[in-house]
Amino acid sequence: MSRTARTEDYTRAVLRVPDLGVTLRPRPAGQVVGAFPFEAPVHVVTAHNPGAERPGAAENAARQARLEEDLDAQGVRWRRTVAGAEDGSHAEEGALVVGLDDTAACALGAAWGQDAVFRWSSSAWTVLACDGSPSVDLGWELGF
Asked: Which superkingdom does the taxonomy of this entry point to (predicted)?
């Protein structure tokens, strides 16, 4: 799968944050429906499926566990997420990280081999490329 196709997958990803009981669905840029539940923008990072690699369920789970251990060791606040296809045909565990800026979030994503990370703010659901390519701003809608 090409990088362009992988980036397009990010723009369609639905985010579930189980301990908040919310589901974020991407919408057209500028369209925001729901109350943003944080004081400042947050980022979503995963260790699953780095770049074009598809290592399989066991390796993805091990990678994600190491990412979560690293976040804990650094004292970073985070919550578990699942992002993927609306119909559930593809899903990846991730971490919604509180307190990072875009540079740090992209560096974290790049360290785990990711093409991009998400930034969720009160005004946008943004796909931030880890290699400095242009970002993609979308809107969002919360469901419960």
From this structure: Bacteria
